[in-house]
Amino acid sequence: MEEFETPKPPHTNYINAEYGLKSWLLTRDHKRIALLYLGAISFYFFIGSLYAMAIRLELLTPQADLVQSSTYNKMFTQHGIIMVFFFLIPAIPATLGNFLVPMMIGAKDLAFPRINLLSWYIYMVGGLITIYALLAGGVDTGWTFYVPYSTTFSNSYVIATGVGIFISGFSSILTGLNFIVTIHTMRAPGMTWFRLPLFIWAHYATSLIMILGTPVVAVTILLVALERLAHIGIFDPAAGGDPILFQHLFWFYSHPAVYIMVLPAMGVVSELIANFSRKNIFGYKFIAFSSLAIAVFGFLVWGHHLFVSGQSVYAGMIFSFLSFAVAIPSAIKVFNWTATLYKGSISYDTPMLYALGFIGLFTIGGMTGLFLASLATDVHLSDTYFIVAHFHYIMVGGTLLAYLGGLHYWWPKISGRMYPEGWGRFSALVVFVGFNLTFSPQFVLGYMGMPRRYHTYPADMVSWQVLHVLSTAGASILGVGLLIPLCYLVWSMRYGPIAAANPWNLPGLEWQTASPPPTENFLTTPVVTTEAYQFAAPEHKEVVGKFERQKPAGT
Amino acid sequence: MSEHIVHPRVYLTIFLALMLGTGLTVLAAFRDFPGPLNAIVALTIAVVKATLVILYFMHVRYSSRLIWLIIGSALFWLAILFALTISDYWTRTWLPPL
């Protein structure tokens, strides 16, 4: 966008209000805590990516020429644990959510600022214990900790890793609690429930899952530790237990956890699609309620992870039906976003490119999920690269793209600086191409029978190697695509053009205050008089360059 | 929210009831009841103890309807976990082994 202001003397904002390490480590400002989270999750994302690179390198050739089997087991386990528990789950809620939930509803902070800071410390303690476990020797159970391997046979640091995840779960619960109370009690005058931006609805639904689901995985990990230490027998058939009970308990949380990752991403995409189409979003209430529907239905489908585990085929039929049902609210969102685009004044800025990428990739990820929700096809595709491709389309193609789109979109608000738009668009395209090249061959590999979690494959399967080479080449491109934003966003913090308060010229509350915002967000409490995404009627618009904007008052 | 003052005697009574429950659990563990009664007896004692903790130590008995709603929704979610898990255990033997 061309809406840059000439540099002005800096106003007092949340970044320059106080200086020194102590002012950051003891802050209660939700915006500073969001930045603490941003730094931490970036660190964990980097660690998780290193494992991904090593995995892709190993799979370049059929034989084991980089690591041994036991090391490879640890690599994919640790890639999964770091990425799921320490990047994807907190990625959008703890950074963008923390920063924006109070600003979007016109509040000065979250309801419990001290608990917000506490959640970051809990997250860091959990994360550092997990890092200790990785450095001490690592864990090799897969990120799913399936019994009896995790309770009886594994000689790796299962309990230490479990303790790290157990602790970090409380951070998630506290964030969810804070969001729910804030959204209920701290909305600005006039900000009724149906005037809330859809980003807020998505975070409200996410918070419900965080609070209702996370305790169950904590209890499950505790049971694994007790079984490992004291052989209490709850998962051991010899003592009257059942190993499949572990899978029920684990997936009761871990399937909804996917929605903890993707619902906030959907919230980001709703903002981007409406605002970069310059149109009121199509079907506001349907999108809002579909978030709640996903949160509720998401708790009813976990058994589709157990179709080939020995679960009753009758229970499998129920779970299969319910898994198809959860596709409905997801599809409602995709159709409504697409309908919003129709006849919109679409601008292809970097955030919009990520949002459009999200719609395509999430749709592919969702549709391939239906293959896995079908009892018969799941038998063929279970534990193959098809599943790896499917959930990466949701988690990377969905959550990561939305996270990057949101980060670019709100970067002027967060940092007070603009990022270089040309580089932004370029890297968004590189990420899209790299991602598809990495994961689309894996659908074919899985269909052909390549199992997941193996680091060797038959040397005479030339087609498998070709697909693996394509996938590794794609991962390299994806890696470059992710490094470019890292470089220019860091660069822009110091050298980027100073951003206007409302560089995208949008009606959202967060754009009606300075960039970066003052500590209290708004100098006077805003009063909301219209619904979200209300753009000016044509007679009140003017064309600036290739963009339409609202005419300044008095013209 | 108005604070309800609970007399220490109530806490003491509940504490003694919980201790009694613990004693009963230990006693029951040494007795072998017929059929599925072992699990039923142990779980009944556990549920009674948990209910006492929720009602008195967590002050839910004296709380607003909103708190009751939240407790109710948590129990509803627990019921989902139990119901769908039991749908597996209940029907697992319906198909004869191949």
Question: What features would you describe in this structure?
Answer:
The complex is a heterodimer of chains A (555) and B (98). Chain A has a single domain, classed as Cytochrome c oxidase-like, subunit I domain (Cytochrome C Oxidase, Chain A, Up-down Bundle), CATH 1.20.210. Helix content of chain A is 65%, strand content 1%. Chain A has helices at 21-25, 30-58, 69-105, 113-136, 149-153, 158-185, 198-230, 243-277, 284-297, 313-341, 350-373, 375-381, 385-415, 421-448, 462-495, and strands spanning 541-544, 547-550. A two-stranded antiparallel sheet of chain A has the order 1-2. In chain A, strand 1 and strand 2 (547-550) form a beta hairpin. Chain B folds into 2 domains: 1-63; 64-98. The longest helix of chain B is centred in the C-terminal third of the chain and has 27 residues, at 65-91. The model of chain B has no long low-confidence stretch (mean pLDDT 91). Chains A and B meet through helix 8 and helix 10 of A and helix 3 of B.
Secondary structure elements and their pairing?
The complex is a heterodimer of chains A (about 550) and B (about 100).
Chain A: H1 21-25, H2 30-58, H3 69-105, H4 113-136, H5 149-153, H6 158-185, H7 198-230, H8 243-277, H9 284-297, H10 313-341, H11 350-373, H12 375-381, H13 385-415, H14 421-448, H15 462-495, E1 541-544, E2 547-550
Antiparallel strand pairs in A: 1-2
Helix pairs in contact in A: 2-3, 2-4, 2-15, 3-6, 3-7, 3-8, 3-13, 4-6, 6-7, 7-8, 7-9, 8-9, 8-10, 8-11, 8-13, 9-10, 10-11, 11-13, 11-14, 13-14, 14-15
Chain B: H1 8-30, H2 37-57, H3 65-91
**Which parts of chain A are unreliable, with pLDDT below 50 for 5 consecutive residues or more?**
none
What amount of the residues of chain B lies in strands? under 5%
Kindly report the average pLDDT value of chain A. Answer: 93
Which class of secondary structure composition applies to the elements of chain B?
Answer: mainly alpha
Number of strands of chain B: 0
CATH C-level class of chain A = Mainly Alpha
Order of helices and strands of chain B: HHH
- Largest sheet report of chain A: 2 strands, antiparallel
Low-confidence stretches of chain B: none
Question: What strand order characterises the main sheet of chain A?
Answer: 1-2
Q: What is the helix tally of chain B?
A: 3
